[in-house]
Amino acid sequence: MDVKTVCLGMLTDGAASGYDLKKQFESSFGHFFAAGFGSIYPALSSLADSGLVTCTRIPQDGKPDRKVYAITAEGREHLLHTLDNSEPSHKVRSEFLATLCFSHLMSDDQVQRIFDHRLAEVCDYLNMFDEIESNGMQDLSAGMQFVVGFSRAMNEARQKYISEHRHMLANDNPVSSATG
Q1: DSSP element (H, E) containing 109
Q2: Local structure of residue 86 (DSSP, 8 states)
Q3: Is the sign of the CA dihedral 151, 131, 25, 72 positive or negative?
Q4: Is residue 33 helix, strand or coil?
Q5: Which terminal residue of the chain has fewer beta carbons within 10 Å of its beta carbon, N or C?
Q6: Which long-range contacts (CB under 8 A, 24 or more apart) does 91-97 make?
């Protein structure tokens, strides 16, 4: 699934600006699907050029016009067709894991700081899920409830694995013995 498809899906909830969609990405999708302004705005522009969304310009005092996008009937049909994929991939892109592949080139202190930072991020995600759940999971679609639960389970597993296995990379590199 690409950013355009996710934008179409979010626009089924109502018209929104690129900024609104960026905020929704951060609060709903950010822990598993990254998208920034550099991908959202080109996606919206492409969707508008294809007739899958409309764009209404709203004048603002002293600022550029605010562009508000709404999904069209053709866009909804395109989204439903795209969602008719019974085999979506589950890819993980992790700078954390890529970095740790080279832990033997880092000092123990560097590696432990990476673990500490990642555990803090996981804790932030778990706190976000707590907040979502305390604000009324019943108000979310069944799909979003599933995603929150799945994401919680993934992050709890990350937290547990890192906590129980971080010792594997301690004192296992020539950098720490050469510098320390």
Answers
A1: helix 108-134
A2: S
A3: positive
A4: coil
A5: C
A6: none
Model pTM score: 0.69
Helix (H) / strand (E) containing 128? helix 108-134
Q: What is the DSSP letter of 60?
A: E
Q: Scan for tokens 């979003």, then name that residue.
A: 144
pLDDT in tens, 85-123: 777 777 777 888 888 989 999 999 999 999 999 999 999
Helical (H) or strand (E) element with 144: helix 142-165
Please say whether the beta carbons of 40 and 24 come within 8 A.
no
Whether 57 contacts 65, CB under 8 Å: yes
Phi, psi of 160 (to 5 degrees): -65, -45
- The type of residue at 94 is S
Contacts of 105 (CB under 8 A, 6+ apart): 173, 175
